[in-house]
Amino acid sequence: MGKKKATIYDIADRSGASASTVASVLNGSWQDRRIAERTAVRIRQIASDLHYSRNLQASGLRKARSGLAGMIIPKHDNRFFSAMSESFETEARSRGMCPLIVSTLRDPKEERRIVATLISHNVDQMFITGATEPDPLSDMCAKAGIPHINVDLPGTLAPSVISDNYWGASELTRYIVERMQDGAGRARDAVHFIGGIGTDHNTRARVQGFMDICRAMLGSADPGRVDTCGYAPEAAEASVRALYGRLGGLPAGLFINSTIAFEGVFRFLRSLPHDALSHVVIGCYDWDPFLSHLQFPVAMVRQNGEELVARAFYMIEETAPAPTVTLVRPELILP
Amino acid sequence: MGKKKATIYDIADRSGASASTVASVLNGSWQDRRIAERTAVRIRQIASDLHYSRNLQASGLRKARSGLAGMIIPKHDNRFFSAMSESFETEARSRGMCPLIVSTLRDPKEERRIVATLISHNVDQMFITGATEPDPLSDMCAKAGIPHINVDLPGTLAPSVISDNYWGASELTRYIVERMQDGAGRARDAVHFIGGIGTDHNTRARVQGFMDICRAMLGSADPGRVDTCGYAPEAAEASVRALYGRLGGLPAGLFINSTIAFEGVFRFLRSLPHDALSHVVIGCYDWDPFLSHLQFPVAMVRQNGEELVARAFYMIEETAPAPTVTLVRPELILP
DNA sequence: GTGAAAGCGCTAACAC
DNA sequence: GTGTTAGCGCTTTCAC
What is the separation, in whole angstroms, between the first and last Cα of chain B? Predict the structure, then answer.
């Protein structure tokens, strides 16, 4: 059964029509060709009898396209990126394309290997999301003549659509500092930044926003209050613990840079007596539903993955887009 | 730059070799053809000068394959499925295939549409994961001659690899009941099951395990203690609240069927005085790292997505596999 | 060790 | 309204 897939020739034979007639009926171009309704119906009937399925490889080869919309992401198992995947699928499908999403595990070498594979599969466009080194990838796409765009992390060779990390961090910091001031005058009256990677573009923008607001609202911004200890929970846990030791207690405010880092911080906080937490204002850059339900309130910054993807599609469809950076505001979610 | 991609003919022209020689050098079959090392080197040099990239569409068309490993999943934005995606990618890549993962949003119609698309793209194999109606999809794959397998939810027309839900639920129930017995003799000394969909295969298996252990350990299993109220947090929250009202307090044990349902239950529990929770034993079928860090202990069942995928690959590579069901044990994670 | 030629399934230009 | 024909870029006999 169905050993060999039926082709338009099989249908042409059975129907007495020619291959091109069959093809145009089956690929939707029959209106233009003014094929008779009767012919079309007959052909479709036979096609379904034979379980015909169009061979998009052959079609694509001929048309020099594939109908595949390619996207690379760092990880599938991540709320932010998996939400982007879903938006990407929706947008791709609404354009009649099949989404092809592949993860790179943040490895620059793997990024290149995978982009090469997608190019070989003739993807019609490439979304480069969260790439550690976007420019070499842009280069590869350019050489293959494939429209492409950077998402979430910017590059210099193609348009980029990224979160407004500076704005998000500023707002979150402002929220924290305002709340802190209710109990001003105490010692340890500063806000501390924990998590992220110092060389990462997004972390840098967030630190910048954090520092600027500290300077504006508190009169000073001490770099010693920023610990970009990485994203690992263990590192973040160690970081708060050390901080707690140094200060002899919790600081007035905590800016945690990602939910993953938050996991570690939370582990430490949970070990403290309950009322130790009552005076610290906590904010987390990134969103997770469970954080809304803890014993203490947490403000969060939720990135707008959907909008990032929508804008990226919009931009990639421009002719000759300039390598500009488009910022998309995240949302501040208050407890 | 790179407007038109280079083909083997461009390289043939420049190198003086024939297209077939170039092709075999560039696709790895040159060892068999005993192409001279010198020729190979020269060709590869020119290929890289021209930024040649193999056209897998043309290659696939000719070889009647695509190099694509297809998988459908219900959702990307889900810990379990996104973890499976990562395992799937690893396995696919190690076989030299490109993973093509598409989500269906649990809509049977969309499932069929997407499977049809993947078939049109000539995927070499199809992994049908968490499909609400797997059999029609099997049918489509069979007619197209595509090896396929069901994962996570079983079908009757193809081999299936699924979690041992009965075992997982039994173990979780046993854990809960054993702990409950420490404080036995109280009223409200029963364990209640909340969440999931009664008609869903997996939920049914879990309810079965739950009931069997209740019967074995507590002497009776009251169907009134099972509320498959769906997966929505709101529904689950309403369910515990009602239960609390009926019993005049919390039951001795709670079996929450999924982390999503848990979110709702948690919302209610949090509203209770802290010591109200000290006597209830809580288990959650499914795993989320944040649940390990709550104010009260939670036992969890963690499904082994990696093993599911590994087994599925193993089975799909069998010749003429029977439509058997392979069970993979989840892991009980104690607080 | 290498080349010539046929053909994978489809589309598009042109013919009638 | 529909048929004929020439490829898309590659692989694969078969020939030498």
Answer: 59
User: Least CB-CB distance to A116: which of B53, B57, B67?
Assistant: B53
Task: Say which DSSP state A80 is in.
Answer: H
Residue A228 banded pLDDT, cuts 50, 70, 90: very high
What is the β-pairing status of strands A281-285 and A299-302?
Answer: parallel
CA distance A294 to chain B (A): 8
Per-residue confidence band for B183, with pLDDT thresholds at 50, 70 and 90: low
**Which are the contacts of B327, defined by CB distance < 8 A and separation ≥ 6?**
B162, B163, B164, B167
Q: Residue B79: closest CA among chain A residues belongs to which residue?
A: A77
Which residues of chain B have a CB within 8 Å of the CB of A290? 263, 266, 288, 290-291
- Considering only CB atoms, B122 lies closest to which of A55, A75, A78, namely A55
CA dihedral B118, B119, B123, B128 (to 10 degrees): 70
pLDDT tens for A2-29 read 567 999 999 999 999 999 999 999 999 8
Is B126 strand, coil or helix?
Answer: strand
Encode pLDDT of B24-73 as tens digits. 999 999 888 899 999 999 999 999 999 999 999 999 999 999 999 999 99
Q: Do B144 and A51 touch (CB under 8 A)?
A: yes
pLDDT confidence tier of residue B187, bands split at 50, 70 and 90: very low
Q: Is the CB of A3 under 7 A from strand C?
A: no
Residue of A nearest to B269 (CA): A293
How does the average pLDDT of chain B come out, rounded?
Answer: 94
Q: Which nucleotides of chain D does any protein CB come within 7 A of?
A: 1-5, 7-13
Q: Quick one: average pLDDT of B255-283?
A: 91
- Model confidence pTM above 0.85: yes
Q: Which amino acid is at A174?
A: R
CATH of B1-64, one of 2.60.40, 1.10.260, 1.10.10, 3.40.30: 1.10.260
- Per-position DSSP letters for B271-290, written without gaps between them: TS-GGGGTT-EEEEES--GG
- Answer yes or no: are the C-beta atoms of A333 and A168 closer than 8 Å: no
Tell which residue, B265, B250, B262, has the closest CA to residue B301: B262
Range B165-302: architecture per CATH: 3-Layer(aba) Sandwich (3.40)
Task: Assess whether B66 (CB) lies less than 7 A from strand D.
Answer: no
Q: Which is it for strands A196-197 and A160-163: parallel, antiparallel or unpaired?
A: unpaired
**Predicted confidence band at B275 (pLDDT cuts at 50, 70, 90)?**
confident
CA/C1' separation B50–D10 (Å): 18
Domains B66-158+304-329 and B165-302 share a fold: yes
The structure tokens listed for B271 are 């509203």
Q: Tell me, what's the pLDDT at B182?
A: 59
Q: Does residue B70 sit in helix, strand or coil?
A: strand
Listed by start position, the domains of chain B span 1-64, 66-158+304-329, 165-302
Tally the C-alpha atoms within 13 A of residue A1's C-alpha that lie toward its C-beta: 8
Yes or no: domain A66-158+304-329 corresponds to CATH 1.10.645.10: no
Return d(Cα B31, Cα B38) in angstroms, integer. 13
